[in-house]
Design a protein that fits this description.
Chain lengths: 369, 260, 396
Amino acid sequence: MTDAAHTYQPGQHPDLPPPSNAVGILAWLYKNLLSSWLNATLTISAAYLLFLSIPPLFQWLFFDADWVGETREVCSREGACWVYIIFWFKQLMYGRYPDAELWRINSAYVLLVLAAIPLFIPGFRWKQWIGVFLFFGYPIIAFYLFVGGSFGLTHVESPLWGGLFLTLVIALVGIVTSLPIGIILALGRRSSMPIIRALCIGFIELWRGVPLITVLFMASVMFPLFMPEGVNFDKLVRALIAVTLFSSAYMAEVVRGGLQAIPKGQYEGAQALGISYWKMMALIVLPQALKLVIPGIVNTFIGLFKDTTLVLIIGLFDFLGMAQLVGTNPDWVGFRIEGYVFVGAVFWIFCFSMSRYSQHLEKKLHTGH
Amino acid sequence: MSEQEAVISKELKVGADVMIQMINVHKWYGQFHVLKDINLAVYKGERIVVCGPSGSGKSTMIRCVNRLEEHQRGQIMVAGVELSNDVKKIDEIRRDVGMVFQHFNLFPHLTVLENLALAPIWVRHMPRAEAEELSMQYLERVKIPEQAEKFPGQLSGGQQQRVAIARSLCMNPQVMLFDEPTSALDPEMIKEVLDVMVELADSGMTMIVVTHEMGFAKTVANRVIFMDVGEIIEQNEPEEFFNNPQSDRTKLFLSQILSH
Amino acid sequence: MAADVQDDLAPTRPAIWNDPRYRAVFYQVLVLAAVLLAGAYIVNNTLENMERRGIASGFGFLTKTAGFSIDLHLIEYKEENSYGRAFLVALINTLLVSAIGIVITTVLGFVIGVARLSNNWLIAKLAAVYIELLRNIPLLLQIFFWYFAVLRILPSPRESHNAFDAIFLNIRGLFTPKPVFEPGFSAVFIAMVVALVGVIFMVRWAHKRQEETGQQFPKFRTSFAILIGLPLVAAMLAGFPLSWEYPVLKGFNYQGGLRMIPEFVALVLALSTYTASFIAEIVRAGILAVSQGQSEAASALGLSRGHTLRLVVIPQALRVIIPPLTSQYLNLTKNSSLAAAIAYPDLVLVFAGTALMQTGQAVEIIAITMAVYLTISLVISALMNWYNTRMALVER
């Protein structure tokens, strides 16, 4: 209370530190954890719950876990058996892709990472060209690497593909193909031509209205009926078509959101310059709209990435499918939980970092301009 | 204290009822010292204009009066009741203190009439018909009775602010606080709001107005307070304040604000 | 004469291929023709293929005997019933799991969404961890986790987990006591109805009295008292005419009581916890969308915290929350089709799975299955559009 007795000239009052009951650890604890009886009770019960659950969880995950060994016999203790994951690691990552050819997948990964790094450097000038390469060039290179059959690479059949590799292939193909289709559908939905608009709305609402699993079923049992005799395409391609149809409908709605956000003045400005419809869309409207919907595209991708797990229902062995498969191996019965925890952790890291990235972009779009 | 009382005694008899009394009030946001040793007495019927650069703590000060902000040291008394953590007392004080916000804060899901009648019905336990009649009276007083059935989103900014003033008046407050009531308005709408405020002042309402409208301060206020860096730097009758500012900061502020 | 002048003033007609109206018609005809041609090609191929493989067509199969059993059926169903009946059973199973999932996920989602905004740091952080953990892991993995990692490793019936000798959890499912209504129960039932009607009248009366005199009445507490009290009194007078049929271990399994199959339990758990993480975010966003200024204005008028919430914050937050909430309900319903992966007998498993295998009529069966989901989606979106136009805030 010394300063209260003190009188200062107006405007000369110094900044004083806040009273000790307003800041500091104790004040923080009081304000955030114990400010009322209800609050204190909640804090204590939550803390007790954590005390009950966290230590055993960590015991199981790390301290009691078995990390080294070759067989299930080393896993007799209380903790998790990570030996199981290590033993099946190659299958979980690549499926049954031949050992000698794994470098092809790995080099495609490396190329993807190298090509994508510049996108995250702020102020890098050739971002558009990197984007064009990732969307058009990279898929062709990756296709030759994975499938082979030419340029001296041996052919690897798609039933051998599996694991996380297959999951990534399906999700990336889905996103790369659904974007252009989605753009066309979105433009069609906003078109002034009634028949085109009706067709686009019908297409979009059909796929958005049904679960992915029915689309996959349709692809696996109905597509063979659609084709003339003798034309038969492989299970993976059918799944890819299903995923593309499905995700392009969602993509169309994301792009439509972006198109709606472009002010009318932009269209009028372009028309005043005498630019044709397609040029106006390609040069003025779409670049702005797509930039606005990047967060939406990333979110669609996250959804698609999680949904790829459904392909195991039609008999493809993606990451989760592989975990299910090795879980039924008679030599390794009883380690499903480890498999789920591992697959879940990998999915979580992918999805969480992507969703953080999209939130970051959203924030930048809102404050930037 | 003595200087302050001297100022007031020119207009009001010493010993008039004190409506609001702030004694050695301090407030911090985290480590930041926003209000420093504020001493202020507001007498019944007084019309005070608070001005000062942005970030000087003027909004924070009036928001402390109805406890939208909590002060950490010192005492605030409103109509003889001391503000503390006691929820009952806070509600009691808020019933007697009306507040008008910069961004109107009308309830967008209710019609104008429902906005006005809400508090009389739920706080004053008034029958709906009576509350609506009262609301209509105040709408007429702010000269927009014909907008009663519209939603706030359908009104202009000036009309919305007048509705907000009427909404506060419906609670028959003893003091009205105005937190930059015209700052969010287009220039052509400022006058209609100020007219309502002048009329309110003429009716004898005790008012504290945070504003940059110096014309309003000159004609309506009987005391002008200048705040900077969380302190009351200077206070005086409007004539003295504008013609003969004492502190350099006040002079600088006035030259900036009056030059355009 | 006049006509001549008019003609002079009319804009010159462009060449027909440059007139946007004719262009539009031309493009549309072109696209329509392409779509129809592709459709015809597919239909033609399909018909040929079906003929060659000897697959029947048409919906006649719906009346034929299905010949397979369904583990869970709320309506009467036996192996000799028709495919149509099997379809109905499966549809009801889908709706059952969706409805129960929706109820649980709503409660869970609202609680977690509010907890996320709690002043209590620990509670808010725990809610955040829940949300970020569950929504970033594929639903199918979570279903597998609950089914294979939790419910499938439960002990055999003899070593069941046991709560109060009434609820048993084992590998065969969750067994709970089943209420048995004895003759006198109708009195309790009538008391419930009377209480409900009474509450409705009480609320109306309280509302009217407040309109007229301004006096408020503790509606919630009174309703609560009536709803609990009246049936309780009736039950006491009738000598508690309700008994419970407890599950009892007989042979290898429990008999009697209510049994929930593990597939059902796993599916409901996974669907509701997963969807709750999305609903929690929606609820949080909805509450945050009501600006601080709104509750400040209400407080400044002297409204209590409860009234501020009830009259100002919640009505505005709900407008923001309800549309995305409905689409989460739709997602949950569509996601219930993942039931097929753990063999819960839903529409996809029974109809698009077993029935399709047996009849081979892929086109009809997939079409019916899709049509069911599509109908649910379209009906709900239509309702949503209606709600949105009705509730939209009126703006200038």
